[in-house]
Amino acid sequence: MSRPPTFIPPEGTLAYPLRTARGEFAVLDTRPTGEVRGTALLLPGFTGSKEDFVALLEPLAAAGYRTVSVDGRGQYESDGPDDESAYAQGELAKDVLAQATAVREPGDEPPHLLGHSLGGLVARAAVLLAPPATFASLTLMASGPAHVTPPQQARAKLLTDAVAAHPMEVVWDAMQAMGPPEDADIDGAELRARWLRNNPAQLIATGKQLCAEPDRVDELAALPLPKHVVSGERDDTWPVPLLDDMARRLGARRTVITGAEHSPNTDRPKETALALAAFWESARQGAQ
C-alpha cells in the first residue's frame, strides 16, 4: 500500500468527477500556471488511490505538465459494481481509454500515460488496446513484466481471501495489527477511510490479476511508443534486475530512483518528478 505524505493536494488542484463514456471517475487535476507542455494521466496501484501521486503534482506542474491522477472504478472515491467481472483487466483498460479521451482538450496533444504497480499492468493493457496516437508515451513505475513474486502472491491471496470472508473494517484492523512498528507514526485515519471505500470485488479481482498476469513485454515492445521504466533501488514486488531486463526488452528509458523502494512517487517525489518530466520532454521533442 502506497502511503502518501498527505491526502491534501497542492493549492490550485481541482478535485472533481471526470465524466467519460464509461462513467465518472474521481480525479485530481493539477495545471501549470504558465505554458502547458503536456498532460499526463496517472493510474495508482493495488489498494492505492489518486492521492498516491499528491507529492508529484506540484513539481510536475512547475515543469509545465498538467497531471490528472485518477481513482479507477471501485477505488476509493470512484464507484464500482459488486461484481468481480466488472474489474477484468480488459474492462479497466477500456476505462483508461475513456479517461484519456475525456482529459484531452481541443488542440491538446495525446496524454502521457503512467501506471504505478498494478496501475502499470492496466496501463499497458490500455496501450495495447488503444488506437494509434491515443497516448504520447507510457511510463511503467515499479510495475513488472508479468505476475508478482511468489511471496507477494501469497500476501495478495491472504488479503483477497480475507476480504472475501470478512467485513472491510475487520480486515483493516487485522492488517494494522500485523504491520511493522514504524507504521505507528503514520496518521491512519485517512488511510483507513480510503481502505473502507474500496469495493471488495475490485480488490479481489485485481489481487488475482497480480498473481496471474502473463508476460506481455514482446507485445508492448512492438508498439512504436516512447516507453519508460521507473523504479526504486529496491523492490520486493518485482525485483529490480527483472525491471532492468524488462526495460532492455522494451527498448525503454530506464530510471532508478536513489533511496526509493516500491513507491518512488511517495519515497522520493522530487527526484521522480524530475525524471518523469525529462522523459516526457524527450518524447515531446521526438514527436516534433
From TrEMBL:
Record key words, sorted: Hydrolase
Alphabetical list of Pfam families matching this protein: Abhydrolase_6
Protein name: Alpha/beta hydrolase
Species for this entry: Streptomyces lasiicapitis
Span of domain AB hydrolase-1: 41-273
InterPro entries registered for this protein in UniProt: AB_hydrolase_1, AB_hydrolase_fold, Carboxylesterase_BioH
Record GO terms (molecular function): hydrolase activity
UniProt lineage: Bacteria, Bacillati, Actinomycetota, Actinomycetes, Kitasatosporales
